Amino acid sequence: MNSHLRASGSAYFLTAAKNNKERHTLSVLVDNEPGILARIAGLFSARGYNIESLTVSETEHEQGLSRITVVTIASPKTLRQIKLQLERLIPVHKVHDLTAEGNPLERELALVKVAGAGEKRVETLRLAEAFRAQVVDASTTSFIFEITGKTSKIEQFISLMVPLGLVEVVRTGLSAISRGPDGM
User: Fold this and answer.
1) CA 135: distance to chain centroid?
2) Rounded distance between C-alpha atoms, residue 106 and residue 177, angstroms
3) Strand, helix or coil at 112?
4) To 10 degrees, what angle do helices 119-130 and 151-165 make?
């Protein structure tokens, strides 16, 4: 008898464990050609897979290659399907699950506009300094901050700015790379 089944006394535990969804960051190296982003987004959409974050940029100009970073939440089975389907697309060279491969370096950039006066303005600047957010624009009624870091740091900064006069947020989405000497 399976140890999971013995411990829980129910086969339901086995089913629930198999369907656990996890957040994964995928790095996809593709030819930089028209329509590739639409094809990849379409692959996710057509199969009902959600994209939490999506960034793309040409990274190897001489070779005409771009890197697409996709963050998705999926069960292990769904994740295997996503990777297999991505690898089948002709302009895709490599697909790496950075989350499964180890502790990737992940960063995001956000521009955060906060309006306020008086004590709220002072508190806004104090918190921005604590989060190492840079003032990139200021007027007598508002600030725009640039903040980079882990997604959790940006989420926390934004949540603290809400009661202080948060007006607007623009985020780049996640950029990620594997640690160590090896490349993609």
Assistant:
1) 24
2) 7
3) strand
4) 170
CA distance 116 to 139: 10
Are both 3-101 and 105-177 of the same fold? yes
Domain 105-177 annotated CATH 1.20.1440.230 = no
35-94 per-position pLDDT tens digit: 999 999 999 998 888 899 999 999 988 999 999 999 999 989 999 999 999 999 989 999
According to CATH, what is the number of the domain 3-101? 3.30.70.260
Say whether pLDDT at 23 is over 60.
Answer: yes
The count of other CB atoms within 10 Å of the CB of residue 177 is: 17
Per-domain boundaries in the chain: 3-101, 105-177
**Please, which pLDDT band fits residue 1 given cuts at 50, 70 and 90?**
very low
In terms of Cα–Cα distance, which of 115, 108, 107 is closest to 144? 115
